[in-house]
């Protein structure tokens, strides 16, 4: 046998046994800017976080494309399951053995609907993210064989975060938006949920078997909305109403899917409640404020983007929000703590530590 072929064969066998021993639990991430780890750096879009001070508290202290001062929620989940952070799928360095760690397909600006975030031009819409997931599986198949690749995907942990932009960057983007003329808010929410259901079924068809599905945060209480639409310096009522309608219906839809599938495939993370805890009583969680962004300008530092010219707070750990929309690393850690250990008010039907315990037994 040609020595190169032999070498390739040996490395395929070594990689395959790595998967079989369950040493590596892959992690896949889908969604928007809350979970994008840098895909948009490779795209011609205005939705990007590739300039300082983004990343100021990241291990490298440089911007990476994450919409955070430091780590984002997927990074902290990776840390929790003892894995390297998943790389952006568009990063050309994501090849070979690195593929076995998983991949991050998320793209800032996207939503459940195709017309969400159109102002950002080239972003990876959710159907495209799922197509990339298929392509990823073909690549991994070449690396370790189709059976092992399927096993890797079936045993993986998956995270999907969608929905916020369908309100902020669609329905409420401009007064009299096309969608708000087409649908009342309750009808729009029902439409979003029915479209989201199809996306989750597609993820199941592609092999996802443990999928964390986050809801939206309290959309009206981010510094941007407080600054632009807040009532008496408080949260913006119409976006609060949107989150109040959307999140419980998402949980119901997920419960319905699981009973149809006869398995706890989808896990609903009540991120609205997780964030509301520190938004309503920031001091109890060691924050000085949840109303003012660390990086930004104007009222609440909530107007425009976070750029090198923005106001920047000296201590990010005492702010719940990093920029006008996105939590700080410290706030992200509080969210992941609840994903890991929260009771059924936070995690339905069970939390991540329970999932990890169950899955390690099978
Ligand atoms: C969104 O676009 C994709 C790809 O073009 C298409 O398959 C899908 O049906 C569209 N979704 C909706 C809700 O129109
Ligand atoms: C969540 O996790 C903790 C352990 O970390 C466990 O004690 C608790 O019972 C779990 N809650 C639920 C509802 O699964």
UniProtKB/TrEMBL annotation:
Any one GO MF annotation of this record: hydrolase activity, acting on ester bonds
CDD domains: SGNH_plant_lipase_like
Pfam families listed in its UniProt record: Lipase_GDSL
Presence of keyword Transcription: no
Keywords of this entry: Hydrolase, Lipid degradation, Lipid metabolism, Signal
Annotated GO biological process: lipid catabolic process
PANTHER family, alphabetized: GDSL ESTERASE_LIPASE LTL1, GDSL LIPASE/ACYLHYDROLASE FAMILY PROTEIN (AFU_ORTHOLOGUE AFUA_4G14700)
Similarity field: Belongs to the 'GDSL' lipolytic enzyme family.
Protein's name in the database: Uncharacterized protein
Origin species: Aristolochia fimbriata (White veined hardy Dutchman's pipe vine)
């Amino acid at each position: 046998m040609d020595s190169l072929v032999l070498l390739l064969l040996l490395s395929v066998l070594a990689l395959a046994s790595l998967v079989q021993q369950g040493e590596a639990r892959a992690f896949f991430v889908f969604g928007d800017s809350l979970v994008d780890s840098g895909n948009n750096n490779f795209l011609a879009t205005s939705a990007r976080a590739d300039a300082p001070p983004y990343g100021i508290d990241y291990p490298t202290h440089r911007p990476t494309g994450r919409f955070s001062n430091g780590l984002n929620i997927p990074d902290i989940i990776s840390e929790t399951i003892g894995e390297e952070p998943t790389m952006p799928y568009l990063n050309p360095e994501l090849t070979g053995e690195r593929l076995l760690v998983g991949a991050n397909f998320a793209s800032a600006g996207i939503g459940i609907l195709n017309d969400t975030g159109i102002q950002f031009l080239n972003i990876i819409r959710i159907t495209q993210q799922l197509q990339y997931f298929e392509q990823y599986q073909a690549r991994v198949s070449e690396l370790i064989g189709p059976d092992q690749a399927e096993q890797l995907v079936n045993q993986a942990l998956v995270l999907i975060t969608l929905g916020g932009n369908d309100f902020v960057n669609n329905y409420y983007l401009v007064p009299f938006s096309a969608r708000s003329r087409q649908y009342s808010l309750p009808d729009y929410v029902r439409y979003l949920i029915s479209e989201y259901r199809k996306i989750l079924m597609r993820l199941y068809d592609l092999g996802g078997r443990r999928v964390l599905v986050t809801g939206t945060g309290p959309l009206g209480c981010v510094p941007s909305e407080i600054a632009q639409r807040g009532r008496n310096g408080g949260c913006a009522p119409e976006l609060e109403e949107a989150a109040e309608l959307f999140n419980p219906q998402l949980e119901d839809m997920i419960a319905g899917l699981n009973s149809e599938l006869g398995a706890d495939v989808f896990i609903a993370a009540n991120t609205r409640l997780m964030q509301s805890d520190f938004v309503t009583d920031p001091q109890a969680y060691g924050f000085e404020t949840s109303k003012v962004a660390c990086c930004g300008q104007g009222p609440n530092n909530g107007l425009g983007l976070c750029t090198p010219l923005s106001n920047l707070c000296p201590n990010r750990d005492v702010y719940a929000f990093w920029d006008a929309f996105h939590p700080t690393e410290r706030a992200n850690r509080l969210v992941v703590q609840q994903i890991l250990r929260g009771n059924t008010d936070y995690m339905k039907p069970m939390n991540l530590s329970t999932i990890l315990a169950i899955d390690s037994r099978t």
